[in-house]
Amino acid sequence: MRKRTSKAGIAPAPDWATTISGLRRRLNVSQTDFGRRLNTSAMAISRWERGAQEPTAEGYIALGNVAGNPLCWKFWQLAGLGRGELMRVMPELKKHLIRTNIHPIEVVTAGSGNKKKRAGSDKSEHVTVPLLSIYAASHGGNGDTSGLHEAPAEGIIGAPKAWCPNPSATVCLRVKGDSMAPLICDGYIIAVDSSQNERDKLNGKVVIAWNKEKGMTVSRLNRFDATEVLQPENNAYESIVMNHKAKWKIQGKVLWWVGKQS
Questions:
Q1: 3-state secondary structure of 100
Q2: Domain assignment present for 177
Q3: pLDDT digits over 14-49, tens only?
Q4: What angle do CA 99, 84, 169 make, to 5 degrees?
Q5: Alpha-helical regions (H) of 83-144
Q6: Between 42-50 and 15-27, two packed helices, what is the crossing angle to 10 degrees?
Q7: What is the span of the domain harbouring residue 239?
Q8: 169, 194 in Cβ contact below 8 A?
Q9: In the chain, how many domains are there?
Q10: pTM of the model
Q11: Do 11 and 3 meet the contact criterion of CB atoms below 8 Å apart?
């Protein structure tokens, strides 16, 4: 079947592309300024608007943030996040939307690092952070080797704004294993702030550490004199000494965690 083309012989842009270009025109900004809002380049915006390259899920989430209600739902659906799914993770959002028809949350992209954008009230009470399709392992196990800002998002999680001091640097991921039990159990979801990665400020805190061979591990960073160790909560597991040979890096501070009771 021959592909339909316009009179000029050029295939029409897909619907998602015209929606993106329409949003930019409505905001009356250049492709460069639009890209800054979305933490991407003007070249990427140009490819999106021409239909040459479709945005990633993270890109669609950011577009929904900029668009606001009701167009945000279309972008989030393109990201694979339906209205029903978003309502399930943020029940309070449903009440607010019904009452005011204003989108009251901030949507941030993993590692965006840019100024937060609001789509609605200036008194936003919640943020949404990406839930990445990766996991951190227990001591002795192997976690994902990709970095926090290299993994795709599979969904979003709503949280009180006070829980996320640096929303644009915060992501969520799952835990695999029980070396941090009973504090953090197998299957729990943790929120990690990658902007808090200085060892001197994290003594005694739960962190995500990364090693080229072991990948990501969730543990507590403790310092004993000049020695730093990753210490599990579960005494059945051994601590890990952080030396130059092992080359462990701190990827971020664990802010909070959620999980189902057994």
A1: helix
A2: yes
A3: 999 999 999 999 999 999 999 988 878 999 999 999
A4: 90
A5: 83-89, 91-100
A6: 130
A7: 56-258
A8: yes
A9: 1
A10: 0.59
A11: yes
